[in-house]
Amino acid sequence: AYFLSLSSETRSSSATLRTSVFLPTNEEHFCQITFHYWISQMNGTLMVGLQKDSEDTITNIWQVSGELQNQWKANTITINSTEKYEV
């Protein structure tokens, strides 16, 4: 389990949490990541990105922007990749 918090009192406007490297997926073996989040800022944005082993760029695969929600929400993302990757 991982936990990341970004306080409005800090000067940074973003934070990053990375997984370890996952093996490629296929029809028999796929990856689902379930996570819980809480947006407590009036203009908060949470993004989930995928970086393939052979690429330097991160591709945005999920995003939520929102107003003050004051409740925990959950989301599950299914990932398909023919090569090693990080989320």
Automatic annotation (TrEMBL):
InterPro entries on file: ConA-like_dom_sf (IPR013320), MAM_dom (IPR000998)
Protein name as annotated: MALR1 protein
Domain MAM: 1-87
Source taxonomy: Eukaryota, Metazoa, Chordata, Craniata, Vertebrata
Gene: Malrd1_2
Pfam families named in the record: MAM (PF00629)
GO cellular component, one term: membrane
